[in-house]
Amino acid sequence: MLKALISLAVALTVIPAGHAAATAPPPPALAVAATHVPVPPGMAPVASTAVATADGELRERVARLTARTRAQARRLGLSSTIGAVPDRPELLVRRERRLVSVLGFLTRTREVPIAVDERTAPAVRPGGRGLAARIARQHSLAVRRSTALGVDGPGALRIAPTRPERVAQLAHWRTVTSFLRARTERVRPAERPLSERLRHYDALTCIAEHESHGTWDISTGNGYYGGLQMDRTFQQTYSPGLYRAKGTADNWTREEQMRTAEKAIATRGFTPWPNTARMCGLL
What we know:
This protein folds into 3 domains: 53-118; 131-191, no CATH class; 194-279, Lysozyme (Orthogonal Bundle), CATH 1.10.530.10. 58% of the residues lie in helices and 0% in strands. It has helices at residues 2-23, 28-33, 49-75, 89-106, 131-149, 163-184, 194-197, 201-212, 232-238, 240-246, 254-268, 274-279. Helix 5 (131-149) runs parallel beside helix 6 (163-184). The protein is rod-shaped and about 120 Å long. 16% of the residues are buried.
């Protein structure tokens, strides 16, 4: 019985000793050798020269990666939201991994052996996403919409040399095109005044004043019809469809009569009205 109690006491004293040996910290030499690995959260860092050196190298690497990532982002026209370099070693490790990933994405490769400043800038797409191409498109829209309104369009485009000036130039042309679009959408081509749709409107108006006192449905029986006093041969030559559909020119609208006269002016000038055209200063 006494021998059994002594054996039990020895066993109870051995178990805590073995457990303590299993959980004891590593020797100093082993701890120093493991200082290159970041210290997990919740554990106190080992104070040694090797630890300080490793942290300094890690911080320097993170600072270099941060600068290169910001430079590459600026070159691509992106905004960089990378904060300051953190102090804690575990945060430095996370930041390094993240920066390597981001920088690899920006340079389209996971390996970044060449400094950002040595890389060529990305070429502008032929379709034009640069400021100059966008300014040119807005200017072209302004020209087309000015023509649709019948007003004088903008002059030749000159792209500004610096980026801030180009940004202001783009904003300017966007404002102009928005202003013109608001008006061209309200006024359809057929709704614009007749004076804007006919090239020789003023000249034909003057001739009609001398020929018929501006009466576009006149027919006096003298063989000439309408405000421009066109005979049947003239009407059949330049507007045979209207002549067959509506008859003589006194049944046509003022625009139809003027458009018929425009066809004659394109080949003969104002000679069909020798006297009245001379009175209007056209001959």
